[in-house]
Amino acid sequence: MTARAKKYASSTDVARLAGVSQSAVSRTYKPGAKISEEMRQKVLAAAAQLDYRPSLIPRIMLTHKSNLVAIVIGGMYNPFYSAVLERFTVGLQEAGNQVLLVHVDSGHSLDAVIPKLASYRVDAIVSALSILSKQSADELARFKIPVVSFNTPVRNEWVSSVCCDNVGAARSLVELYLARGGRRFGFISGPPASPASAERLAGFRLGLAAHGIDNLAMAVADFRYEGGHAAALSMFAGPDRPDALFCANDLMAIGAIDALRRTYGLRVPEDVLVAGFDDIPSAAWGAYELTTFVQDGQRMVDEALAILRVAAASHGPVGEVAIEVPARLIERQTTRRQPI
Amino acid sequence: MTARAKKYASSTDVARLAGVSQSAVSRTYKPGAKISEEMRQKVLAAAAQLDYRPSLIPRIMLTHKSNLVAIVIGGMYNPFYSAVLERFTVGLQEAGNQVLLVHVDSGHSLDAVIPKLASYRVDAIVSALSILSKQSADELARFKIPVVSFNTPVRNEWVSSVCCDNVGAARSLVELYLARGGRRFGFISGPPASPASAERLAGFRLGLAAHGIDNLAMAVADFRYEGGHAAALSMFAGPDRPDALFCANDLMAIGAIDALRRTYGLRVPEDVLVAGFDDIPSAAWGAYELTTFVQDGQRMVDEALAILRVAAASHGPVGEVAIEVPARLIERQTTRRQPI
DNA sequence: TTGTAGGCGTTATCAA
DNA sequence: TTGATAACGCCTACAA
Question: Phi, psi (5° rounding) for residue A89?
Fold first, then answer.
């Protein structure tokens, strides 16, 4: 058990076995290098014998490029984010990058993992964290790592953001609710620190204010089904129940619907209008048919990838890019009723 | 634009600025190295000035260990797999590893990405692909990369598997169905190539055969909600509708329930018993309350991590490990009815 | 076309 | 305690 297993064969090993120089091996694997067919075959034969695969690690040292992009994410329980993660992964792989997946407990910040990512010399970072502090952003700038912040509008010279128009979307929902006869409004929020949730609330308030309405029932939850369920239970426990409920995401809206129907025997949409945000797959399921805002995950990912391409090409800061993608309302059954 | 930006400061840069040797810098960052406090401070000051972070890349060359573990996955649309991915990520990070996330289109095999993973010198691979061919497994063995196959029972000297007891679980469901008055049975499968789906079908058939039943309505789907929905539509289109439906996973079961209820006006469980597999979060949602088998994702991940630890410690093949975790039935409303 | 030599940023070994 | 030096595996001149 003494011999320390050397797991991978090196180009030197192959060269020795083939009786050629190490450079010859290197050239064999470099597309478009000048090498004779005879030499190529000799090398490939030896390589096959040793199961040789060229290592990318030395190249990282030489080029200062790892082709590694880190994706930092804090909770894949939300199907919107698992879909985003999948799209990023596919897009980055197509662009020749590899994905370093980093999980950070939701509610925590990037800070703790930045040094580790820097140690791995990642080319860029995608943050799909609902919380990205200004301090984190500044530290990232110190390391000169290009960052795209997904759905959190922090930015500086090195940190760009791709968000969706939370305020405008939420604001427009008020018109729909009024047209459908909504009169008493309620909002179930995500975690207090989430900018996305805060913006959706702000937009909703703006829309209400435009109609002189300042009465809004509020409950704080956590973006999860259970949280939405519990929040709806408490919001509808007393008198003066809302008849038009907006939830900061679909998962909570679905939880709320189940609570309203099963605990309080309320009908959706007849008794209560409900809308969410994201358009996750289950929003379209037959038991819910939830009205919601389509956050165009594919488009947002594409925008983020475009920023990363620019960053990779420029070898420098990409400037204070902040992209906002519109959110599209898709009305399903949870708001389909005739005005009273 | 000529100067090729050298992005990260190196230990040599720090040493020069601090007026010390490069080894001194190295020692400063090595826990438990003998170095004077004075030297340490000098180095740290220079490092801070240059925003220096030691690189892990050269260490990989020296030690032949990257601390990188690849997770190959083919479709995070299934919440069971996104939860598994999250657990793996957390577990590996806690063990000091980093996760290289690789997406392979579901239905495809590992083969195409193996060389790339070998190039990154990953320490191990976790495959959460529903399809892992024997050929892939053999190629992996050639590269001497330890692999854990999740839910696909392929194995060899280098490839271990962690599966759940699909056959036993599916078989036991027959008893429940008979006790609940089920008489005409139906099964909606995943993709034909999926071993998990095949085992669940085999177990179901075994259970039926034990009671002399060989009549089973079948529909092939794809593990998705839409697939289950469509399969149920066709299975229940004719006469002789089943009254006890088993779906190879929860997502399809939920799709089937929506189809039965909304298109055919059937009641679950009164008219049709339904059960799924996985126990994804939405199985517990109020609108479905789906009876299903808990695939203990946490435990399966823990077993897989344990195998990886052994592999890391042994520097060699881990042997033909095949772990089978039991699946636990959790009965909810979709099978709760008195026998007819 | 082929081989030799230097360097990338670390760690480990050995002298000083 | 420090510094010089040799790896690690590859790529890129440059020389043959």
Answer: -60, -45
